[in-house]
Amino acid sequence: MMHHDSRKICIFAKFFRKRVCMNNDSFALTTEEQHKLKGLYRGLMRLVGPELHPHDYERVRSLFADVSMTADMKRDVFGLHPLLMSMQTAMVVATEIGVSRPAILGVILCQLVRLGRLTEKQVHDDFGEDVATIIRGLQRIDTLYAKNPIVESENFKQLLLSFAEDMRVILIVIANRVCVMRQIKEAVNDEARRRVAMESSYLYAPLAHKLGLYRLKSELEDLSLKYLEHDAYYHIKEKLNETKKNRDAYIERFIKPVEEKLKAAGLKFHMKGRTKSIHSIWQKMKKQQCAFEGVYDLFAIRVILDSPLEREKQDCWQVFSIITDMYQPNPKRMRDWLSIPKTNGYESLHITVLGPEAKWVEVQIRTERMDEVAERGLAAHWRYKGVRGGEAAVEAWMQGIRNALETGDDLQLMDQFKMDLYEDEVFVFTPKGDLFKLPQGATVLDFAYALHTKIGNCCTGGRIGGKMVTLRQVLHSGDQVEIMTHSNQVPKQDWLNVAKTSRARAKIRQALKEMAATQAAFAKEELERKFKNRKIEIDEPTLMHTMHRLGYRVVTEFYNALAVGDIDLNQVMEAYQLQQRYDRGELTTQTQSAENFQAQLADNQPAGRKSDVLVIDQNLSGIDYSLARCCQPVYGDEVFGFLTAGGGIKIHRCDCPNAPALRARYGYRIINARWAGKGGSQYAITLRIVGQDDLGIVNNITSIISKDEKLQLRSISIDSHDGLFSGALTIMLEDTARLRQLVQKLEGVRGVKSVTRL
């Protein structure tokens, strides 16, 4: 069998060498890429060759022979060749994830389908439904990315639907993203690299985390940090290199006595030290607000046991007992994922002990099987038939995605989805003892909706340990919860602030919409009845004008306001009759002289702003926006747009203090923006001036502003202390050029130490 497979590999290698060399113009592969392609193919066949069907070789060979002679495959925005990327992705899928024939063929053949050299029907007939399903999912994702190369809120739901059709599609896309991120260090297109890195950080790394692909998750996070926070990444990397020798020596001192004890107990095992990822260290530095030296748990010791399935838990707890006898454990830092594994299949026992030199050390205890699941995620379950979790865990997670997609705004869905991916879990029980897993921070209301939508809609509270609690009560692992309901209870708007899970929030929003529609229908009937009683026939155009006069632009909003009592029926009747008189010409509106009119400007809006001053996203102008107060952008600043939860667009400076957090947490809401035209509007900016508290210095500062006709001082506040003064000046000006001139003049005032823009 092995000899037969080796012969096929040699035949394929010769085929690739011949085709690639003959058609270099068509493939547009460099010599280095040709060698890479041949090497990847040989390696791939050695890995998955035995799992391929006999006719797979010949069919794929003939297809590639055809496409190599006729197709001209264009490189992507980073200059990466699609054929080489397909092979690299297939290799990552095979080595890092372990998914076999359907996924490998799906990755390779998808390029041929994209080029039109193969149809879905042909794939189905020649390779089976599994391969066709994967290609169908990959094509749906291609369609989304063709519309917009970065996942934005409007197509996020469709992306999840593509994922939910077949889990292997997620695994392939994650593998492809890893391949891209590995190769874009030298990319010329810095903007595209930043956006791909942001998307990897806020979407694909969490997906890899949820699926248990911890190695790929860490690599995506590290590479994202490398491209987004270059200085921080290399600072930590250099520090790790500097401390590697001492770190390795300490690990050796910790491991040696533990190894002796475990060998004496007759256990089969191996141990290794694992340094935390650069991204993880960076997050700890930010969270603890400390330097690199302040992060004490830079590494973890991993004990991996060679145990039969029936002795796994027993052996892990034996190791736990031996290590905690040797070193003092920290009870608050213990994590037991042996008794109840994570939903992504992760099983391990984590303890933190006080090692030599009084240093805290994390120890992870697991078996070979558990370690493979930890590295390869849920896909590794398929290798262990009969092991708990497995495909049932995969389907449970997929069902959670489908439930979240039933209702809800795209932005809220994506925010909630990301939270569900990252949150730890709590385990609670029904009175009958059924186990439910919920994200940390989940409430009684979340649990009610987890049981059933009707139970959630009627929930009034719960009982935990015999004690009555409100529906806002946060749940903890081990709680046995009984849900209390009442037939008259209905969902409230503030329940959206109580619920933490995407399922509960989606069901609440659905119920609120249905209730609002019902209330609006009743309000409409009542209004029509009132008109009928007064023998007034409703004229639709007049009624619409009345709604606008009352301040409502949407019909449903008008009827909802009527239903909840924000406006009175009699008020509507009076406004309607007044509008009728205007329409008949019996009344005329009074006009006001422009000389006596003064616009009241909002603090965050520029005076006289023109609709084409900013171009949003892909050359779209005239879109409504507002300027963020946190950074007060001015014409000429480098800016970006941020899509708020309410649907509006806030314009921020690229160096806004909040920009890193917005990009990290809500990267899918970031849109391109740039200034256009000649400006001409005035914008509010705030300057912080620090200087010596000399007599007349404030007058000198204000006189500079007052002498410039194009500057307007809106406010000033001065604080003097110990011979120094600190002042905040809010000024209206036109653009950054005018701002630079002003700063130079202020810095030239005698006694001024610094002028900074807030």
> Number of domains in the coordinates?
5
Looking at the overall shape, the CATH architecture of the largest domain is Orthogonal Bundle
Total strands: the figure is 21
Count of helix runs: 28
Q: Supply Rg.
A: 32 Å
Pick out the low-confidence regions. 6-27, 382-391, 589-612
Which overall shape is indicated by the principal axes computed on the Cα atoms? Answer: globular
Largest sheet: 6 strands, mixed
CATH class of the largest domain: Mainly Alpha
- What is the CATH superfamily classification of the largest domain? Hypothetical protein af1432
Strand content: 15-25%
CATH topology of the largest domain: Hypothetical protein af1432
Structural class: alpha+beta
Describe this structure in words.
This protein has 758 residues and is an alpha+beta fold. The chain is built from 28 helices and 21 strands. The strands form 5 sheets. Strands 1, 2, 3, 4, 5 and 6 form a 6-stranded mixed beta sheet that branches. A 6-stranded mixed beta sheet has the order 13-12-17-15-16-14. A hairpin with a 2-residue loop joins strand 19 and strand 20. Helix 3 runs parallel beside helix 5 and helix 7 packs antiparallel against helix 8. The relative contact order is 0.05.
Précis, in short:
The chain is an alpha+beta fold. It is globular. Mean pLDDT is 77; it is low at 6-27, 382-391 and 589-612.
Labels describing this entry:
28 helices; Beta Polymerase, domain 2; 15% strand; 758 residues; Hypothetical protein af1432; 5 domains; alpha+beta; six-stranded mixed sheet; globular
